[in-house]
Design goal:
Strand content: 15-25%
Shape: globular
Order of helices and strands: EEEHEEHHHEHEHEEH
Number of helices: 7
Radius of gyration: 19 Å
Structural class: alpha/beta
Distance between the termini: 23 Å
CATH superfamily of one domain: P-loop containing nucleotide triphosphate hydrolases
Strand order of the largest sheet: 5-6-7-3-8-9
Amino acid sequence: MSKTAVHIENLSVYYRHTKALSDICLDVVAGEYLGIIGPNGGGKTTLLKAMLGLVRPYSGRVEIFGGPPQKKRVQIGYVPQFSAVDRQFPITVFEVVLSGRIDPGLRPFHRYSQRDKKQAEELLGRVGLADIAGYQISELSGGQFQKMLIARALAREPRLLLLDEPTASVDAVSRQQIFDLLAELNRDMTIILVTHDLFAISSQIRRLACLSGRLVYHGEPELTDSVVQNLYGCPVDLIAHGVPHRVLREHGEDSDKDD
Protein backbone atom coordinates (compact mmCIF):
# COMPACT_ATOMS: atom_id res chain seq x y z
CA MET A 1 0.00 0.00 0.00
CA SER A 2 1.31 3.47 -0.94
CA LYS A 3 2.22 5.72 1.95
CA THR A 4 0.20 8.89 2.44
CA ALA A 5 2.26 12.08 2.18
CA VAL A 6 -0.57 14.48 3.08
CA HIS A 7 -3.77 13.69 4.94
CA ILE A 8 -6.34 16.48 5.36
CA GLU A 9 -9.52 15.70 7.24
CA ASN A 10 -12.52 18.06 7.54
CA LEU A 11 -10.27 21.13 7.47
CA SER A 12 -11.87 24.56 7.90
CA VAL A 13 -9.88 27.79 8.21
CA TYR A 14 -11.08 31.29 9.11
CA TYR A 15 -9.39 34.67 8.82
CA ARG A 16 -11.15 36.59 11.59
CA HIS A 17 -14.81 36.10 10.62
CA THR A 18 -14.21 35.15 6.99
CA LYS A 19 -14.14 31.48 6.08
CA ALA A 20 -11.24 30.68 3.74
CA LEU A 21 -11.60 26.89 3.62
CA SER A 22 -14.62 24.76 4.39
CA ASP A 23 -14.54 21.07 5.34
CA ILE A 24 -11.64 20.04 3.08
CA CYS A 25 -10.85 16.32 2.89
CA LEU A 26 -7.86 15.38 0.76
CA ASP A 27 -5.26 12.61 0.66
CA VAL A 28 -2.06 12.88 -1.36
CA VAL A 29 -0.11 9.66 -1.89
CA ALA A 30 3.68 9.75 -1.60
CA GLY A 31 5.18 10.26 -5.05
CA GLU A 32 2.09 11.99 -6.42
CA TYR A 33 2.17 15.14 -8.59
CA LEU A 34 -0.95 17.08 -7.63
CA GLY A 35 -2.12 20.31 -9.23
CA ILE A 36 -4.45 22.70 -7.42
CA ILE A 37 -6.51 25.21 -9.39
CA GLY A 38 -9.33 27.59 -8.55
CA PRO A 39 -10.42 31.22 -8.65
CA ASN A 40 -8.55 34.01 -6.90
CA GLY A 41 -9.55 34.00 -3.23
CA GLY A 42 -10.50 30.34 -3.45
CA GLY A 43 -8.16 29.29 -0.64
CA LYS A 44 -5.31 27.73 -2.63
CA THR A 45 -2.49 29.54 -0.83
CA THR A 46 -4.27 29.05 2.50
CA LEU A 47 -4.32 25.30 1.88
CA LEU A 48 -0.57 25.28 1.27
CA LYS A 49 -0.03 27.30 4.45
CA ALA A 50 -2.14 24.77 6.37
CA MET A 51 0.15 22.02 5.08
CA LEU A 52 3.11 24.05 6.34
CA GLY A 53 1.49 24.60 9.73
CA LEU A 54 1.45 28.38 9.20
CA VAL A 55 -2.31 28.81 9.72
CA ARG A 56 -4.35 27.38 12.55
CA PRO A 57 -7.34 25.24 11.58
CA TYR A 58 -10.71 26.28 12.92
CA SER A 59 -11.62 22.61 12.75
CA GLY A 60 -10.21 19.41 11.29
CA ARG A 61 -6.59 18.36 11.00
CA VAL A 62 -3.62 18.15 8.67
CA GLU A 63 -0.96 15.43 8.75
CA ILE A 64 2.29 15.35 6.81
CA PHE A 65 3.84 11.89 6.58
CA GLY A 66 1.79 10.83 9.59
CA GLY A 67 2.53 13.77 11.88
CA PRO A 68 1.61 17.43 12.48
CA PRO A 69 3.09 19.91 9.97
CA GLN A 70 5.01 21.77 12.67
CA LYS A 71 7.07 18.65 13.34
CA LYS A 72 7.59 17.80 9.67
CA ARG A 73 8.73 21.15 8.26
CA VAL A 74 12.23 19.88 7.66
CA GLN A 75 10.71 17.43 5.17
CA ILE A 76 8.83 20.16 3.27
CA GLY A 77 10.21 22.52 0.62
CA TYR A 78 8.12 25.59 -0.15
CA VAL A 79 8.24 27.99 -3.12
CA PRO A 80 6.08 31.05 -2.36
CA GLN A 81 4.36 33.29 -4.87
CA PHE A 82 6.66 35.55 -6.86
CA SER A 83 4.97 38.67 -5.45
CA ALA A 84 5.48 37.53 -1.84
CA VAL A 85 9.26 37.95 -1.95
CA ASP A 86 11.13 41.27 -1.67
CA ARG A 87 13.31 41.39 -4.78
CA GLN A 88 15.17 44.48 -3.56
CA PHE A 89 16.65 42.82 -0.47
CA PRO A 90 20.47 43.07 -0.64
CA ILE A 91 21.46 39.41 -0.90
CA THR A 92 23.12 37.24 -3.55
CA VAL A 93 21.65 34.26 -5.36
CA PHE A 94 24.10 31.93 -3.62
CA GLU A 95 23.22 33.34 -0.18
CA VAL A 96 19.48 32.83 -0.80
CA VAL A 97 19.95 29.18 -1.75
CA LEU A 98 22.38 28.63 1.12
CA SER A 99 19.82 30.02 3.58
CA GLY A 100 17.61 27.07 2.71
CA ARG A 101 20.02 24.87 4.66
CA ILE A 102 19.06 26.51 7.96
CA ASP A 103 16.83 24.27 10.06
CA PRO A 104 13.34 25.64 10.82
CA GLY A 105 13.18 27.91 13.84
CA LEU A 106 15.23 30.89 14.94
CA ARG A 107 18.94 30.12 15.20
CA PRO A 108 21.05 33.27 15.61
CA PHE A 109 24.72 33.24 14.54
CA HIS A 110 24.20 30.15 12.38
CA ARG A 111 27.41 28.94 10.73
CA TYR A 112 27.20 27.10 7.44
CA SER A 113 29.19 23.92 6.99
CA GLN A 114 31.22 23.01 3.93
CA ARG A 115 28.50 20.49 3.10
CA ASP A 116 25.91 23.29 3.19
CA LYS A 117 27.95 25.37 0.75
CA LYS A 118 28.58 22.42 -1.55
CA GLN A 119 24.87 21.59 -1.56
CA ALA A 120 24.00 25.16 -2.52
CA GLU A 121 26.53 25.11 -5.35
CA GLU A 122 25.17 21.82 -6.68
CA LEU A 123 21.59 23.06 -6.58
CA LEU A 124 22.49 26.23 -8.45
CA GLY A 125 24.03 24.05 -11.12
CA ARG A 126 20.96 21.85 -11.22
CA VAL A 127 18.62 24.78 -11.91
CA GLY A 128 21.03 26.42 -14.35
CA LEU A 129 22.11 29.39 -12.24
CA ALA A 130 25.70 28.47 -11.35
CA ASP A 131 27.14 31.25 -13.50
CA ILE A 132 25.16 33.98 -11.70
CA ALA A 133 25.60 32.76 -8.12
CA GLY A 134 27.18 36.08 -7.10
CA TYR A 135 24.45 38.28 -8.60
CA GLN A 136 22.19 40.37 -6.40
CA ILE A 137 18.64 39.04 -6.57
CA SER A 138 17.45 42.42 -7.86
CA GLU A 139 19.40 41.70 -11.07
CA LEU A 140 17.49 38.52 -11.92
CA SER A 141 14.82 37.98 -14.54
CA GLY A 142 11.51 36.48 -13.46
CA GLY A 143 12.53 33.01 -14.61
CA GLN A 144 15.90 33.17 -12.88
CA PHE A 145 14.26 34.36 -9.67
CA GLN A 146 11.81 31.45 -9.64
CA LYS A 147 14.59 28.92 -10.29
CA MET A 148 16.49 30.41 -7.37
CA LEU A 149 13.47 29.97 -5.09
CA ILE A 150 13.09 26.36 -6.22
CA ALA A 151 16.78 25.72 -5.50
CA ARG A 152 16.35 27.22 -2.03
CA ALA A 153 13.34 24.97 -1.37
CA LEU A 154 15.39 21.95 -2.45
CA ALA A 155 18.26 22.82 -0.10
CA ARG A 156 16.52 20.98 2.74
CA GLU A 157 16.39 17.80 0.65
CA PRO A 158 12.60 17.63 1.15
CA ARG A 159 10.26 14.71 0.64
CA LEU A 160 7.38 17.06 -0.18
CA LEU A 161 7.64 20.13 -2.43
CA LEU A 162 4.90 22.79 -2.34
CA LEU A 163 4.86 25.46 -5.07
CA ASP A 164 2.56 28.48 -5.33
CA GLU A 165 2.29 29.70 -8.94
CA PRO A 166 5.95 29.00 -9.86
CA THR A 167 5.50 29.96 -13.53
CA ALA A 168 3.75 33.29 -12.98
CA SER A 169 5.74 36.21 -14.43
CA VAL A 170 8.24 34.03 -16.29
CA ASP A 171 9.06 33.75 -19.98
CA ALA A 172 8.11 30.74 -22.11
CA VAL A 173 11.60 29.20 -22.09
CA SER A 174 11.93 29.43 -18.29
CA ARG A 175 8.41 28.07 -17.91
CA GLN A 176 9.31 24.94 -19.88
CA GLN A 177 12.59 24.56 -17.96
CA ILE A 178 10.75 24.78 -14.65
CA PHE A 179 8.21 22.15 -15.65
CA ASP A 180 10.96 19.87 -16.96
CA LEU A 181 12.75 20.23 -13.61
CA LEU A 182 9.58 19.46 -11.64
CA ALA A 183 8.93 16.34 -13.72
CA GLU A 184 12.46 15.19 -12.89
CA LEU A 185 12.08 16.01 -9.18
CA ASN A 186 8.83 14.08 -9.02
CA ARG A 187 10.81 10.87 -9.44
CA ASP A 188 12.11 11.36 -5.89
CA MET A 189 9.53 13.49 -4.08
CA THR A 190 5.86 14.38 -3.81
CA ILE A 191 4.89 17.62 -5.54
CA ILE A 192 1.86 19.84 -4.93
CA LEU A 193 1.56 22.70 -7.40
CA VAL A 194 -0.85 25.64 -7.26
CA THR A 195 -1.19 26.90 -10.82
CA HIS A 196 -3.30 28.67 -13.43
CA ASP A 197 -1.09 27.28 -16.19
CA LEU A 198 -3.13 25.05 -18.50
CA PHE A 199 0.02 23.41 -19.86
CA ALA A 200 0.74 22.04 -16.39
CA ILE A 201 -2.86 20.93 -15.92
CA SER A 202 -3.11 19.12 -19.24
CA SER A 203 0.31 17.55 -19.65
CA GLN A 204 2.33 17.64 -16.41
CA ILE A 205 0.33 16.80 -13.31
CA ARG A 206 -1.06 13.36 -12.50
CA ARG A 207 -3.94 14.39 -10.24
CA LEU A 208 -6.00 17.56 -9.98
CA ALA A 209 -7.78 19.27 -7.09
CA CYS A 210 -10.23 22.09 -7.80
CA LEU A 211 -10.67 24.48 -4.89
CA SER A 212 -13.15 27.28 -4.34
CA GLY A 213 -13.33 27.58 -0.58
CA ARG A 214 -14.36 23.92 -0.65
CA LEU A 215 -13.03 20.98 -2.63
CA VAL A 216 -15.09 20.89 -5.83
CA TYR A 217 -13.20 18.05 -7.52
CA HIS A 218 -10.28 15.69 -6.91
CA GLY A 219 -9.29 13.20 -9.55
CA GLU A 220 -7.85 12.85 -13.03
CA PRO A 221 -6.52 16.05 -14.64
CA GLU A 222 -9.46 16.37 -17.01
CA LEU A 223 -12.23 18.86 -16.28
CA THR A 224 -15.89 18.58 -17.18
CA ASP A 225 -18.17 21.53 -17.85
CA SER A 226 -20.03 20.88 -14.60
CA VAL A 227 -16.81 20.93 -12.51
CA VAL A 228 -15.75 24.23 -14.07
CA GLN A 229 -19.24 25.64 -13.47
CA ASN A 230 -19.05 24.67 -9.78
CA LEU A 231 -15.49 25.97 -9.50
CA TYR A 232 -15.92 29.40 -11.06
CA GLY A 233 -19.67 29.88 -10.66
CA CYS A 234 -20.22 30.49 -14.37
CA PRO A 235 -19.44 28.84 -17.71
CA VAL A 236 -15.76 29.20 -18.62
CA ASP A 237 -13.99 28.21 -21.84
CA LEU A 238 -10.51 26.82 -21.12
CA ILE A 239 -8.20 26.71 -24.13
CA ALA A 240 -4.66 25.34 -24.01
CA HIS A 241 -3.00 26.63 -27.18
CA GLY A 242 -0.54 24.19 -28.71
CA VAL A 243 -1.04 21.54 -26.03
CA PRO A 244 -1.92 18.05 -27.32
CA HIS A 245 -4.03 17.16 -24.25
CA ARG A 246 -7.61 17.99 -23.40
CA VAL A 247 -8.44 19.99 -20.30
CA LEU A 248 -12.17 19.92 -20.90
CA ARG A 249 -14.06 16.99 -22.41
CA GLU A 250 -15.92 17.56 -25.63
CA HIS A 251 -19.51 18.62 -25.07
CA GLY A 252 -21.68 15.56 -24.93
CA GLU A 253 -19.00 13.15 -23.79
CA ASP A 254 -19.87 10.79 -20.97
CA SER A 255 -19.68 12.65 -17.64
CA ASP A 256 -20.38 9.70 -15.33
CA LYS A 257 -16.88 10.07 -13.88
CA ASP A 258 -17.70 13.37 -12.15
CA ASP A 259 -17.01 13.39 -8.42
